[in-house]
Amino acid sequence: AVIWVNHHRILERVEKADHSFFWLNTNLLLWTSFIPFPTALMGDYAHNPLAVSLFGIVLSLSALAFTFLRKYLADHGDLLKKEIGPHVLK
């Protein structure tokens, strides 16, 4: 739910999308949709360091994707709604 809420809050500030924003958002959704796999793997093999590491890596990549998306929008304020300034995303 936290990922969905944060994604929704970012996108409600966006007026239009360009090619780079589209791919950054797609990258975020990729890692978000992949989270159930390492979660199930870690549930089945909780004491396996590889399973736990994979879970951490996927969550880290998801967080990194959020960071890149927010930074891109902050640097490209023309994509945001007129009443929203880029400082909101910094």
Question: Which keywords apply here?
Answer:
single chain; 90 residues; mainly alpha; elongated
Task: List strands and helices in order, with pairings.
Layout (H helix, E strand, L loop, with lengths): L1 H10 L7 H16 L1 H9 L4 H27 L15
Task: Provide an overview of this structure.
The protein is mostly helical and 90 residues long. Helix content is 69%, strand content 0%. It is built from four helices and no strands. The chain has helices at residues 2-11, 19-34, 36-44, 49-75. Helix 2 (19-34) packs antiparallel against helix 4 (49-75). The relative contact order is 0.18. The mean pLDDT is 92.
Quick structural gist:
The chain is mainly alpha-helical and 90 residues long. It contains 4 helices and no strands.
* Largest sheet descriptor: none
What level of helicity do the residues show? 55-70%
Strand content: under 5%
Could you say which structural class the secondary elements and strand pairing correspond to? mainly alpha
- The whole-angstrom Rg is 15 Å
In N-to-C order, the SSE pattern is: HHHH
Number of helices: 4
First-residue to last-residue Cα separation: 22 Å
> Which outline best applies?
elongated
What is the strand tally? 0
Uncertain residue segments = none
Please tell me the overall pLDDT: 92
